[in-house]
Write a structure and sequence with these properties.
By secondary structure, this protein is α/β, with parallel strands linked by helices. Helices cover 41% and strands 23% of the residues. The strands form three sheets. The protein has a five-stranded mixed β-sheet with strand order 1-2-5-4-3.
Length: 204
Amino acid sequence: MGDRTRSLNLTDATTALDMALDALGTVNINPAYRVCGTSAALLQGVPLPAGDIDILLASREDVDTFAAALSSFPCLDPASWLPEFSQYFTRFEVNGAHVELSTVERQVDSDAWECVGSGPWQHYVLITCGSHQVPVVRLELRLVTELRRDRADRYDPLLDHMSTHGFDAALLQRSMNARHIPAHRQRLVQSRLARQPGARASER
């Protein structure tokens, strides 16, 4: 939901996250969170332009707690309920980067969605950002979001990265099935990822 005109690079993203998490640490409350969206791919080394940093939280109370910790930074959008997106949402500017905090309050019977249900809480990796270990949603779930949106400029770099660095084939297939990715696009994914023996067992 960001309206930035400049894309974030990896240094922008890691610096902003480090500063935001430093601020969160001062309140001595540690709500569970996950970094989602394009910034999650950027943090894992995929060369994609990220317009903002999307942080998913489990409850509105957690959003409010994190927002209070960021009160020294400019608040661009005060916390509010967005019914069209089923989100409780707020946005801050941290070191020039837009940091978006939200819930996604929808129920799904699957662990294979990027920002809904148990998926982001079960399937993630830890990435070092300054002094913090940041939980970032796995690329398999990010890829399927972009497949669902049919954004080749986003899913092509993800496929290139995963074919080289490995991926969880079972999670990816489960996610494509859960998100009803069309058969022809699933075949494209299988073809691209079959070029190298990248499939591996799940780490989580």
